[in-house]
Design brief:
2 copies of one chain form a homodimer.
Chain A: H1 2-11, H2 15-22, H3 27-36, H4 39-48, H5 51-59, H6 63-72, H7 75-84, H8 87-96, H9 99-107, H10 111-121, H11 128-131, E1 136-139, H12 145-155, E2 161-168, E3 174-179, H13 180-185, H14 192-195, E4 203-204, H15 209-219, E5 223-227, E6 233-238, H16 239-257, H17 272-299, H18 301-306, H19 314-337, H20 346-375, H21 380-410, H22 415-442
Chain lengths: 447, 447
């Protein structure tokens, strides 16, 4: 309703009223609104924003709209917006922009800033370095609380995070942390040194964002300092950026577990072609790997010719083994993500999966035997064959599902990418092989 | 290494040195250490903690160890710890404790506190009410900035979150928000009214934690106020609790997608029996639902008797359809979680899935036909039958996978619980039925 109303104001060129209507809206909501307008209108609406709000709104726009706006405005206006962005938002923006926009911005930046931007663009994606911002308050330990608060008053306006201040020495090495709460609560003439905490939780520029997220969760932080290899403070990561990073990582993991290439754009605004591309290759690989199962079955064609009833149990075997494998792999993948399981635990995991399997297969095989033999009236040999095949297949699938993600991680392969397709393929092949081998022997069928 | 060292100090009864070693450790690390000790030693170590650290460490312990410690210490010591906990940690603790511990605590609480505790225990799990804490700074709009800061100095020590202060009227209705940053940066004689923001983002006590998480992400918050049905401010939720809630929800979703009941305890410290129980029922249900596929196959036994080679393609069909269905359902489930898709989008989703399917199946069916006919030398009728069955099965699986999670959500069923097993079963049944029906007709086999 709000969108339509504002759209109408724009159409009727009632710009003053439009401006009045949006002035109290949070920047995130204005950005959402702009995304829903068509692009010429979105650009007009963006131009109407009060100067102090423009950069804030800009930082929440999709990179597509950011690019369109950047191309539509002149250098002066563009630089005004860019200069008002927090440094981490500026880097995010530059990473996504077409080359001509990037070069316009670099051309209009100072030498020092160009150097800094280039340095930040070099941090690997998903590293702490790529998430951090350079706007923070640094204090010297010899100062008093009053002097520290005065500094925050002077510099705080342009700093994203003032709630944690960082105490550094003359070489920019991190010596302590003091929160704004501690500063406000301390007597004004106390020394920063006396109230700062020295047990500092920090991360390194090359740490993975998953590690950073674990640290935020464990220590209940709202910001964490980032240091370089010489332990110099180079930036901070704030909790809102970690929330976004966690959302992205989780989407990626869930898409991988669902067997496709992850998509970081919303489903509704992604074209069917792009979505099809993200799914096609995995399906193709799985379809082709199904050839292994097909080969196993065709090898036992003679057996099947004799007892065609055996075919009926192929889906049950394959599905149950596949599901068991995906249960154990999903569980282990999640534990790896949360840092609960390490490489060295692999044998403990295998042993636990064996124990779990024994408990599960006794139950499943019993139900299966009773159902096939008594309820459906198949002969005891067939019920027995199916049940034994089921037991072995579930055990193998569980153990492989448990071990494979850890092995993948050991070789620096994302466990979510590798586990799914491989486990399905292996579980299928194992369950079919055991099933037919058993059937051939137990039912005394000549191959 | 640290753990062993500290364990040794405890064994040798070098308590003073132990105390000295741990005094600078963050409470989260001390809690982690206690969890690794055996329980009698953990209780001794806990007693050795300095009084001001005990409650903090206690709030990070597992509920098992919390219960053991609660039973080992006397009422006075227990109440000291409980009184030092933040209110949300207190409620979390009480929810997990055995009845005798809870009654000891309630017996030693004041009438007013008992009432408040009971009220909080009634909020449904995973609701905003169950996540919130009652310690926050509320201000009156007539006050000056100086008076507000003085109040924060007086009350701030015992308050978890001082970075956002909430302005309420005489009826406790929320009127505005002012951050500590804004207070520190404002002139001391300004009125709170003049600097507070009135565009308040808030949640209701009954809102689901997923909704709350979405709001935190969208608006980059570090705390959000919680109001009751009369818009009175009853508590706040801090970002660290939302991080924990997101972790829990994600684990739950991923476990559901992997086809099992979610487990909220770490894998390594959960017994094989418990883990087996979480997996068994789903496997059993899936195994039994496989009977449908078995029935379809047995109905076409005559067809198979004639062309036993058809069996070889059952795994490829089932796996590809199953995987396609899990791709689309996983994608839609994630979009529902992130609030990107609403109920009303169901027809758009179905239409998009049809478009995606068409693109994908043309590619898959072509590869499949070429492979079976030219590479593996099967007759053209079989290659054609398998390819057509594959195309139809993938389309159906994609559409069902896209629609089912939305329908589930519409009926207030967790889409992750329902989607997985149902889609596999339906995809299997559909692909087999189409395959055999087509084969019977195209290959002119008498049924």
């Amino acid at each position: 309703m709000v969108v339509e109303e504002l759209e109408k104001l724009l159409e009727e060129k009632k710009y003053i009223e439009f401006r009045r209507k949006i002035q109290d809206m949070p920047p995130q909501d204005i950005a959402e609104l702009l995304e829903e307008l068509e692009s010429t209108q979105a650009i007009i609406a963006f131009r109407l924003l009060p100067k102090e709000k423009a950069a804030d709104v800009f930082s929440y726009l999709s990179s597509e709209l950011q690019a369109e706006i950047s191309l539509a405005i002149d250098d002066k206006k563009l630089m005004e917006i860019i200069d008002d962005l927090f440094f981490d938002d500026k880097i995010d923006f530059l990473e996504e922009m077409p080359a001509n926009v990037v070069s316009r911005i670099l051309k209009n930046s100072t030498e020092a800033e160009r150097k800094l931007i280039n340095q930040f663009l070099k941090y690997p994606p998903n590293s702490a370095g790529s998430l951090m911002t350079i706007e923070f308050i640094d204090l010297k330990k010899e100062r008093t609380v009053q002097e520290a608060l005065d500094k925050i008053r002077r510099e705080g306006q342009d700093v994203e995070m003032v709630y944690n201040c960082y105490v550094t020495d003359s070489k920019r090495k991190l010596e302590g942390i003091v929160s704004l709460k501690e500063l406000v609560l301390a007597p004004p003439d106390a020394k920063v040194e006396d109230i700062m905490r020295k047990d500092i939780i920090y991360v390194n520029t090359h740490d993975d964002q998953e590690t950073v997220a674990q640290i935020f969760r464990k220590y209940d932080l709202i910001a964490v300092p980032v240091v370089d290899s010489e332990k110099r403070l180079v930036g901070i990561i704030t909790v809102d950026d970690i929330l976004d990073a966690i959302e992205e990582e989780t989407t990626e993991d869930i898409h991988h577990i669902g067997g496709m290439s992850p998509s970081d754009k919303p489903y509704m605004s992604t074209s069917p072609f792009t979505l099809a591309r993200k799914r096609f290759w995995w399906l193709l690989i799985l379809m082709i790997s199904g050839t292994i199962s097909a080969y196993i079955i065709s090898k036992y064609e003679a057996t099947l010719q004799q007892v065609v009833g055996l075919v009926a149990f192929i889906p049950i075997l394959m599905d149950t083994a596949g599901n068991a494998g995906s249960q154990s792999s999903t569980m282990i993948i999640r534990s790896l993500t949360l840092g609960e399981i390490k490489y060295k635990d692999i044998f403990k995991v295998i042993w636990k999966e064996i124990q779990i399997s024994v408990i599960i297969v006794i139950g499943l095989a019993t139900v299966n035997f009773l159902k096939i033999h008594f309820l459906e009236g198949y002969p005891v040999e067939i019920a027995f064959t199916v049940s034994i095949a089921l037991m072995s297949a579930v055990c193998v699938a569980n153990v492989i599902g448990g071990a494979l993600p850890i092995i993948a991680q050991l070789f620096h392969i994302d466990p979510t990418v590798m586990a799914g397709p491989l486990i399905t393929t292996i579980a299928d092949a194992v369950s079919l092989t055991i099933y037919f081998a058993l059937a051939t022997h137990l039912l005394n069928i000549p191959v």
